[in-house]
Amino acid sequence: MSLLETLFGGTVIVVILHWLLGRAGLANYWRGVISGAVPTIGYAVYAIMNGDQLDVIAIHVAIYLATATVLSLLASDKRNSGKRMHWAPKAMVVFFGLLTVIDGTFVAVSTQGVPPWVASLIMPRAKNHPVYSGFSGVTEHDEQAAKAVNEHLKTLSDEQKLGWDVEMEGLDTLKSGPSAVNNLTMRLHDRLKQPMQNAVVTLNFFRPGYVQMLPPLRLLEGKPGEYGGSISIPGTGSWVVKLVIEANGQRVEREHDVSVPAS
């Protein structure tokens, strides 16, 4: 499940539980405790199994408990007054509801990027090429960074001169989780469309900004020109995959931005 699904889905569960417990005649205090605790405990179990990060867990717990608290305060005020709820508390509920939606959206965009269909509407390049819009961490803008850009452009030029045909399968269907095993296959052909054998093929998985890196994955040759391997991705969200191919004394590097959902 995505962050938006767990965040707003859990909030809806808090509201429904609070209403059902009220219909059952439970005291308002225990309505707030139970309606806030059940989704929080349920998500905690899911987060442990899914390997969610602490900042994502914190926003879920805060939203669930805040929702339960606000509902209990409003129910108590209404019961004590015996009249229809004043417009001011209603305005506060709407305000904090909108604030929750906006904050949740910001967190989702920062961790997973803008959804592809939204990116295609506001980013012209996204219509034909994958565009990563999530937060990539701190990026250097000094002479070393400029040198890296120049080296990357030179690599692209060298790759075009070689004329290698690289076909990668499995990156579009990646799943995260300790039990999810992702099978990856790469097919390599030369300029004459002949299979290239005895190549050294390595895949490097890391978070944008190099904030989290996985051990390199070596793809082994099976059929002529076909290399395969498997990997487990520990967390959901945006990852960068760096493909390194060494063959015939030449070296080619490619990077792909991928979004990995839960298994």
TrEMBL record:
Keyword annotations for this protein, in alphabetical order, are: Membrane, Transmembrane, Transmembrane helix
Annotated protein name in UniProt:
Nitrogen fixation protein FixH
* Origin superkingdom: Bacteria
Q: Which InterPro entries match?
A: FixH (IPR008620)
One of this protein's Pfam families, by short name? FixH
> Carries keyword Transmembrane?
yes
Task: Tell me yes or no: is Transmembrane among this UniProt entry's keywords.
Answer: yes
User: Where would you find the membrane-spanning parts of this chain?
Assistant: 6-22, 29-48, 54-75, 87-109
